[in-house]
Design a protein that fits this description.
Keywords: ATP-binding, Ligase, Nucleotide-binding, One-carbon metabolism. By secondary structure, this protein is an alpha/beta fold. The protein has one domain: Formyltetrahydrofolate synthetase, domain 3, CATH 3.10.410. It has a 3-stranded mixed beta sheet. Strands 1-3 form a two-stranded parallel sheet. A two-stranded antiparallel ribbon has the order 6-7. Strand 6 and strand 7 form a beta hairpin.
Length: 105
C-alpha cells in the first residue's frame, strides 16, 4: 500500500503508524484512496516550510480508515477536528427572559 519513493524522498512511519498499516492490510482495506492530514501551508508536514518544496520526507504518525467517506487518512503532526455529534449541544441550551442560561453543562 504505502511504499518508499524511488526518488529518495519517503514517508517515514512511526511505530504506531506501521502497526496501523499492518492492521489495515490484514483487514483488506489497504487499497482504499489515501487522504493526508497535514498543514495547509505546505506539501510537507512542517508548518514552517511554506509552498511546494520538492525535496522533503514526511512523517506519518497515525493511520485510520474513514469508512463513511471510503478512504484512509494518514495523519502527520497536526491537530484534527473531532467528529461532531448527530444532535448539536446547542439544541439543549436555552436562555430565559431573565437572562438565565440553562443546558451548558
Amino acid at each position: 500500500m504505502l511504499k518508499k519513493s524511488t526518488e529518495g524522498r519517503q514517508a517515514n512511519f512511526t511505530t504506531a503508524a506501521k502497526k496501523q498499516v499492518k492492521k489495515l492490510e490484514e483487514m483488506g482495506l489497504d487499497k482504499l484512496p489515501i487522504c493526508i492530514a497535514k498543514t495547509q501551508f505546505s506539501f510537507t508536514d512542517d508548518k514552517n516550510i511554506v509552498g511546494a518544496p520538492t525535496d522533503f520526507d514526511i512523517e506519518i504518525q497515525d493511520v485510520r480508515v474513514s469508512a463513511g467517506a471510503g478512504f484512509i487518512v494518514v495523519q502527520t503532526n497536526i491537530m484534527v477536528m473531532p467528529g461532531l455529534p448527530k444532535v448539536p449541544a446547542a439544541n439543549k441550551m436555552d436562555i430565559d427572559n431573565d437572562g438565565v442560561i440553562t443546558g451548558l453543562f
